[in-house]
Amino acid sequence: MKQKLLRPIATVLVLALLASPALAWEKSGEYSEGMVLVTEGDKWGYANSSGTLAISPRFDEAEPFDLGAALVKENGKYGLLRQDGAWLLEPLYGSLTSLGSGIYIGEQNGAWKLLSIVPIPDGQGGLDNMSVGYDTFEPYHARFNPWLGALLGRTASRVTGARFQIDGKTYNLSASGPAGSNMHGGFVGFDSRVWTGEADSDATGATLKLTYLSPDGEEGYPGNASVTVTYRLDDDNRFHMDWEVVTDAPTIIDMSSHVYLNLNGFKNRDIMNEYLKVNASYYLEKDATGTPTGNFIPVEGTVFDLRTPKLMEELSQGAVYNPIMALDGEGGTLREVAEVSIPEKGRSYTLHTTARALQVYNAYNMASFYTSRGLESPFAPAPGLAIEPQNYPNAINIPSMPSPILRPGETYSERQFFAFKW
Asked: What percent of the chain has pLDDT over 90?
């Protein structure tokens, strides 16, 4: 039977269970296949099919949920508990609402957070979370957040000198990146803005439609840009991201996603046992600031030849690995461009996109985002791999590259999806 990533079929997990004490607990509802919720007084726990307690009753509330987990309330907060007693989502939320397909909305102190578990079965009846991220809201809004799961815009990557020209007029952007560049849209990019959301689900998956009006002059970019981003998780184990933008004045647009994924489950280990394949015969030369020069270099004979799967440990060599690949195929055409796999685990995903380029980042220096600010890093080196489809970075300043200018009456439209297998 085909097992779904987003609505997995739970299996009986035989645990190293606690010996069942003489408690007056009662069976109170199905939790998952072979497991039941139980009560003792006003507290909740669960037992296996043989009647042995797996988790002694301690929760204020509990009910069957999805992804083989129970929705429980502990110390006034809600979380999702796995069959093995580990947290799928720690109890940090005033409320949790499932949209299906692994998407949740969690409330904390009157604010709302989109929670995308991106789970994959661990082969032992539980789930591993592949998407690197935080459990609480605050770090996502802090400047030291290294764009975890970020929606990047107006432009991904860098604009050299934080300036460009359109029709002879110079625009100065916020110099938020290295060497005075504009980085990922500025100091307060799209990832840090408040978006309007509309959620829906059907028999084949769940959709979240986000909209945002980026005003003229925001981070120095011209024109009022109306942005729509649609996320969808479907029952064919695909995670879709579609972008559309219209503007009332000439501007530049090149959006991307900064999702970090780890096929091991990011809390289990680093990505050095993953294999990466990218359909790219050329990579982009970068200057000393890390910005493309406009030169395309053949990958043949270089460490950037990813046309056959390469082990991340061998590519990384204990350091940051961060090339920009010029993708084979025609930009604007949705096509498979990359594959990440762990053959011994039987896990993999492919990336399909309409973009021209792919930024690869192994996050080896993740801790430096925190330690350089006197903070303790919550992550070890290389907790996830970011493969970021986009058009050529800094193209506005390189006449030989396709223009990223969007004019009134035109629509910027790009698509991508990850397809997961195990």
From this structure: 51
